[in-house]
Design a protein that fits this description.
The protein has about 400 residues and is an all-alpha fold. Helices cover about 80% and strands about 0% of the residues. The protein is built from 17 helices and two strands. It has a two-stranded antiparallel sheet with strand order 1-2. The longest helix is centred in the C-terminal third of the chain and has 30 residues. The N terminus is likely disordered.
Length: about 400
């Protein structure tokens, strides 16, 4: 057995494995919160538009940090410090939710926590990308997605058990969610190492927008169109509560889509390595359009359970393939910057997406935001199909 094989864990590079483990613990924590946060906000007097505003502002205003952290990590050729600080912010903020009394306080905490995510997201994806080869980028991003969503399964499951079996308050759930968040930070500190860079450039080249290929920006434009109709998952949970289901079961329903996403993530990643990313992203957009249209058309818990299964498939298809496609398109020394801009586009677009959805929900009806999301997803699917065909010809 050669040393290269010995350094792997379950067939994955050590950095890939431990980055996945970090995301597992952190997502266990954040999804314990997220699966009950819409219910908690409604319980302290927040409207649907307020919930949308909190999600949108928290994501969008922190998005600039993602560009800065990605570009900065490229410049100093280090990713780990950004990950330690970013995941550390989440661990510090999490227990503070237990002391919230008004919706504005949630906004302040969500904003701070999203800054932490902004610091870590692009450097983390850059670390994954530079730790693997182009031929297996899909498989490794699939593994990370699977670990991320495994935490997203365990978090809602724990919240469901605590609410249904022990009738624990939302505040105590927030306090307990701190434990896995701290473990995630310790995993980075103790086990993750910076990838070795083959060589450092003799002089630092100043980044310009034209440094990234045109294909990358065309790809981002399509992501923008899709994300404009991709409002926060909180609206799916709120719509599900309107079927009459007991509130304690909402985290369990949210867990279903994460289970499917975990089961599909690695197979989807491997498939994207073989058949191409564009086809799978297009398919994911179409599935999303179907899910959102049916969420708007019906108000039945049995139909919604099936739709959460489809939503998990969409999540695996799109998230894994998008990140792997950026890894294919962008040169090694600009990956942090490219992932930073990508995450920023997602975050910035979430503000108008969530505000549109919130206004449609409050001012029109509960079906309108889902029809809007389905329409934007279909537009993005057509554009992605064209993008894939043109790239194949070139």
């Amino acid at each position: 057995m050669d040393s290269k094989t010995e350094n792997k864990i379950f067939g994955f590079e050590r950095n890939i494995f431990y980055t996945g483990l970090t995301s597992f613990f952190t997502d266990t924590s954040t999804k314990m919160l997220y699966s009950v946060m819409p219910l908690f906000l409604l319980s302290i007097g927040a409207s649907k538009t307020t919930i949308a505003l909190i999600e949108g502002i928290a994501e969008s205003t922190a998005s600039l940090v993602k560009v800065i952290s990605g570009s900065w990590s490229d410049k100093i050729r280090r990713n780990k410090p950004f990950m330690v600080i970013g995941y550390g912010v989440t661990a510090v903020v999490t227990p503070l939710y237990a002391f919230v009394r008004v919706p504005f306080q949630v906004l302040a905490l969500r904003f701070t926590e999203r800054i932490g995510k902004g610091l870590r997201a692009a450097p983390r994806d850059s670390l994954i990308s530079t730790s693997v080869t182009k031929l297996d980028a899909g498989k490794n991003f699939g593994f990370h997605k699977a670990m991320d969503n495994s935490g997203a399964i365990l978090g809602p499951l724990i919240a469901f058990i605590l609410l249904s079996a022990f009738q624990i308050s939302y505040q105590n759930i927030f306090l307990l969610a701190t434990i896995p968040a701290v473990i995630g930070v310790l995993t980075i500190v103790l086990f993750i190492k910076e990838p070795k860079n083959p060589e450092k450039p003799k002089e630092q080249v100043k980044f310009r927008l034209k440094s990234l290929p045109t294909r990358y920006y065309l790809f981002l434009a399509i992501i923008f169109v899709f994300t404009l109709g991709n409002s926060a998952d909180a609206f799916l949970l709120i719509k599900t509560t309107e079927t009459g289901i007991q509130q304690a079961y909402i985290p369990f329903v949210y867990m279903i889509f994460n289970v499917v996403s975990v089961l599909c993530a690695i197979p989807v990643g491997k498939l994207s390595d073989r058949v191409g990313r564009g086809k799978l992203i297009t398919l994911g957009f179409v599935i999303y359009a179907v899910v959102y249209f049916l969420f708007g058309r019906y108000n039945n818990i049995h139909i919604f359970l099936f739709l959460f299964i489809l939503y998990g498939l969409y999540s695996a298809l799109v998230d894994v393939s998008q990140k792997a496609m950026i890894s294919d398109i962008v040169a090694r020394d600009l990956k942090g910057t490219a992932y930073g801009i990508y995450h920023a586009v997602l975050g910035i677009t979430l503000l108008p997406a969530s505000l549109i959805a919130g206004q449609l929900y409050d001012k029109v009806n509960s079906n309108a935001p889902f029809y809007f999301g389905a329409t934007m997803a279909l537009c993005a699917a057509v554009l992605m199909g064209i993008f894939t065909l043109v790239n194949r010809k070139n």
